[in-house]
Amino acid sequence: MSEEVPESQPEQQPVDVTKKVPETEEERAERLAKQEEVDGRSVYVGNVDYQSTPEQLEEFFHVVGVIERVTILFDRYSGLPKGYAYVEFENVESVEKAIEDLHGKTFRGRELRVTAKRTNLPGFRKNSNGFRGGRGGPRGGARGTFRGGRGPRGSFRGRGRGRGGYRGSSSGEIDGEAVGSSEAETTGGEGESAE
Fold this sequence. Notes:
It is a single chain. This protein has about 200 residues and is of the alpha+beta class. The protein has a domain at about 35-115: 2-Layer Sandwich (Alpha-Beta Plaits), CATH 3.30.70.330. Helices cover about 20% and strands about 15% of the residues. It contains four helices and eight strands. It has helices at about 25-40, 55-60, 95-100, 185; strands spanning about 40-45, 65-75, 80-90, 105, 110, 115, 175, 175-180. The protein has a four-stranded antiparallel beta sheet. It has a two-stranded antiparallel ribbon with strand order 4-5. A two-stranded antiparallel sheet has the order 7-8. Strand 7 (about 175) and strand 8 form a beta hairpin.
């Protein structure tokens, strides 16, 4: 019996599955509407005991309505619980009842905070100063100070804050000797000598 050698298949190009197809406006609006609907049926539960399980929370919250899902959030790096959870109910009426009946109640020795879950809008983040931006200010600018000057507390950074270098005491002294070229750098800008 002779063995037949299969003909070699043409080499296929690997498919890149990491590329995401951009979401259309309609798909995005549909996804956000669905998320808002789910969030409207959910409550935020704060001050949850760290050893709590979803089953225990479900048992505690089932008195106000039928529960669809219980989510306890964990820190992604340490794997430990963050101390809060979300409970999704079957209907919106259960949310109001849970807030009225269970906010402030004790669960496993801790007083729970139960509030309506808010919907996160992707791509929209407000900083403490009310602006969007990656670096804390409008369009990523410096936080109300000019670069190289005195910071928000009046401290002088001087040079050498970049990579490497000596990171000695914060007072600008090494073994009792002042380091730097001016009084302002060594004393924090108060005009006194550093001796």
